[in-house]
Design the sequence.
């Protein structure tokens, strides 16, 4: 598979949460099915083509498989596919993956089989028409008639982050009019700050604003309640900035997070039934994974032993759920004297890593023995990565709410693992924490399944490991 950038790794959950992406996904699925039928009509003539045996079922199957492949190669990361070259490249990757899946299906289920000429013709049409349609959609959707004019109420860190996101993500369908500050002295049109909170009603009316994002933390005595209510009753949508940030970024904005948001939020809790179902999924996946990975584990153990002296498995104490200590298992990827000078974070191009270690880290094979930790109940398949107690003590002093990531079982993989680079500094750990807290807030079995699927993408494209 060709390499896909990290930002392409959107989860299935995010696809379902974005009406824009979901509608596009459904329409392009229908388009793929129509193209299969069109290929039949072109090859056999209109009447015979439309009467080709089971053509509707076959077109539906091809469309379903291709859409799954397009999602998997990142075609529904709308920000990453705005350039024509990127759209064609990802459709080509998806078509190749789809063909690899469809051929065994045709062999195992002859009723879905279609002639080689018909199939290749349909694939060629999809590879040409789908990216061309997407390029046209991208060009039209950024026009003023399709963008909602948006004002951000706030000028702090969160407001600026959201503003930068809107400017860099035309696929969101939001045209930023400007930001509003609390203090008149902060107004600076050259910086995008076009007025103050007290001007919101007149700015909304004059600029034709359809969407207001409230993005500032301290609202005591400053929130223009009457004006916000009036614009809302006039049909303008008003939404919390933190909700917009979480939905589009897939992480929680920790730097302005208040304890009340954690306490009174609808998330950050898991029902007993969800925990039991998650445990069943963990045991099943870990058991099947160990059986399937047994030959790879034996070969890895042999290669580690041949390259350098020392144990095959690396054991280390980590902090688990609610801080409970346990011993994690990994294939050894470093020299035995790697921490002779004390505990330290892994670094990019770490000289302590062996040649075999470099490979098993890139492919995540070094993590496979942790499936035993999952069976023991120390870990889950999905969750925040377990950290060493010594690092937790350090990071709690530097990063707010770092301890809260210990409120669920750590995982072999996680939301942060498929969205972030390997944590090698306090800043990296802050970024990972924002994703971990979002996972804890959105805790569900469906989210776990989507993260597992994305983990396979990370391994295939060799992204995020160090």
Sequence:
């Amino acid at each position: 598979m060709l390499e896909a950038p990290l930002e392409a790794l959107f989860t299935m959950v995010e696809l379902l949460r974005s009406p824009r992406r979901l509608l596009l996904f459904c329409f392009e699925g229908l388009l793929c099915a129509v193209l299969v039928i069109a290929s039949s009509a072109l090859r056999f003539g209109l009447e015979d083509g439309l009467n080709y045996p089971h053509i509707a079922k076959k077109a539906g199957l091809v469309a379903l498989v291709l859409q799954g492949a397009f999602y998997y190669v990142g075609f529904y990361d709308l920000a990453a596919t705005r350039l024509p070259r990127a759209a064609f490249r990802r459709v080509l990757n998806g078509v190749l993956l789809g063909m690899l899946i469809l051929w065994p299906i045709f062999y195992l289920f002859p009723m879905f089989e279609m002639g080689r000429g018909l199939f290749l013709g349909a694939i060629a049409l999809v590879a040409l028409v789908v990216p061309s349609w997407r390029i046209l959609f991208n060009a039209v959707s950024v026009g003023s008639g399709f963008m909602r004019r948006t004002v951000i109420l706030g000028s702090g860190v969160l407001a600026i982050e959201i503003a930068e996101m809107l400017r860099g993500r035309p696929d969101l369908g939001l045209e930023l009019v400007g930001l509003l500050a609390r203090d008149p002295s902060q107004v600076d049109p050259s910086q995008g700050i076009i007025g103050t909170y007290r001007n919101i009603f007149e700015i909304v009316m004059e600029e034709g604003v359809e969407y207001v994002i409230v993005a500032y933390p301290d609202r005591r005595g400053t929130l223009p309640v009457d004006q916000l209510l009036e614009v809302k009753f006039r049909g303008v949508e008003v939404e919390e900035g933190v909700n917009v940030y979480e939905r589009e970024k897939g992480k929680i904005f920790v730097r302005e997070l208040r304890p009340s948001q954690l306490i009174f939020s609808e998330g950050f809790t898991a029902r007993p039934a969800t925990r039991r179902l998650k445990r069943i999924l963990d045991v099943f996946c870990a058991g099947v994974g160990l059986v399937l990975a047994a030959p790879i584990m034996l070969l890895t153990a042999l290669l580690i032993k041949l390259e350098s002296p020392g144990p095959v498995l690396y054991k280390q104490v980590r902090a688990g759920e609610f801080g409970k200590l346990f011993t994690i298992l990994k294939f050894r990827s470093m020299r035995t004297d790697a921490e002779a000078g004390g505990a330290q974070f892994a670094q990019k191009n770490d000289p302590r890593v062996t040649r075999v270690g470099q490979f098993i880290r890139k492919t995540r094979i070094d993590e496979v023995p942790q499936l035993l930790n999952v069976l023991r109940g120390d870990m889950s398949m999905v969750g925040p990565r377990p950290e060493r107690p010594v690092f937790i003590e350090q990071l709690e002093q530097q990063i707010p709410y770092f301890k809260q990531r210990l409120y669920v079982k750590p995982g072999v993989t996680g939301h942060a693992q498929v969205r972030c680079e390997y944590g090698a500094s306090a800043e990296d750990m802050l970024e990972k924490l924002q994703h971990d807290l979002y996972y804890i807030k959105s805790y569900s079995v469906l989210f776990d399944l989507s993260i597992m699927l994305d983990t396979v993408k990370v391994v295939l494209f060799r992204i995020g490991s160090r």
Observations:
- The CA atoms of residues 405 and 437 lie 6 Å apart.
- Confidence is low (pLDDT under 50) at residues 1-12.
- The chain has three domains: 6-141, 144-249, 272-461.
- The radius of gyration is 26 Å.
